[in-house]
Amino acid sequence: MKVPFFSSLLIIGALAACQGLPLLKGNQPDPQPGDVLFSDDFSSEATGWGTWNADGSAVAYHSGGLRVLVGQPNLSFWSTPGKTYDDAVIEVDAQKMSGPDNNSFGIICRYQDDDNMYGFIISSDQYAGIFRKSAGEYTILSDNSMLSYQPQIKVNKVNHIKAACVGTGLTLWVNDLRIATWQDQTFSTGQVGVIVSSLSDAGVDVLFDNFQVTQP
C-alpha cells in the first residue's frame, strides 16, 4: 500500500559516527568524473564506520559487510565512515537478512548532524523514495510526499542502491533503474553513509556491502 512516510516513521534514534573529515587536497589533482573517492567492502574494521550495540540493536562489521539491526519499533539507525563531500554518487548493495518487510533502508548523503540530512531509501515490500530531514523534520521529496511502489525491488535478495547528490539535484536508482529525482538546495555538503529504519515492527536486520563513492 502506498503510504505517507510520516504515518510510519514516528520516532527516530540516531547513531552518530565520528566527525566528518574534509577531503585532503593539497597538491593533489582535482578528481575527474568517475574517479572513485572512497570504497569499502567491509573486510576490515579499520575503515571507520560508527558501530554500536545495545538494547537488542546493533551496527557492526559482520560477515564481510556492515550489519544494521534495529531491535525496537519506530526507530532508525545510521552510520557514516566520516567522509565529507560536496557532490557525490554513492552506491551500495543491501539485503534484508531477517525481520519484517515493513521497513526502510538505504543511503544518506550531505549528513550534517542527527537532525539534518538527505536519504534515499527502499523497503522490503517494494516502496522507495527520497527524503530530507531538516531541523529534525522529515519530508518526502519525491512522488507527492509519498513512498512509491517499485516492482523492480527484489524481495529478500540483494538490491543495488545508487544515489546522486550533485548540485541541487538528488536522484535515486535501484537495480540500475532511475526511480526518483528532485531538486533541493537545503544542504550542499556533508557526510555519506547508510540508514535502516524499523516501522511498526521490530527486528529489521540489513546487511550492506560494496559501498562506493565516485566523482559525478
Could you characterize what this model shows?
Strands 1, 2, 3, 4, 7, 13, 14, 15 and 17 form a nine-stranded antiparallel β-sheet that branches. Strands 5, 6, 8, 9, 10, 11, 12 and 16 form an eight-stranded antiparallel β-sheet that branches. The chain has strands at about 35-40, 50-55, 55-60, 65-70, 75-80, 85, 90-100, 105-115, 115-120, 125-135, 135-140, 150, 160-165, 170-175, 175-185, 190-200, 205-215. It has a single domain (about 5-20, about 35-215), classed as Sandwich (Jelly Rolls), CATH 2.60.120. It is globular and about 50 Å long. It has about 220 residues and is mainly beta. Helix content is about 0%, strand content about 50%.
Task: Give a brief description.
The chain has 216 residues and is an all-beta fold.
Are there runs of 5+ residues with pLDDT below 50, and where?
A: 1-25
CATH architecture level-2 label: Sandwich
Instruction: Tell me the name of the CATH homologous superfamily.
Output: Exo-inulinase, domain 1
What is the residue-averaged pLDDT?
A: 89
Q: Largest beta sheet, briefly?
A: 9 strands, antiparallel
- Total DSSP E strands: 17
Query: How many structural units, i.e. domains?
Result: 1
Order of SSEs: EEEEEEEEEEEEEEEEE
* N/C terminus separation: 34 Å
**Overall helicity:** under 10%
The CATH topology turns out to be Jelly Rolls
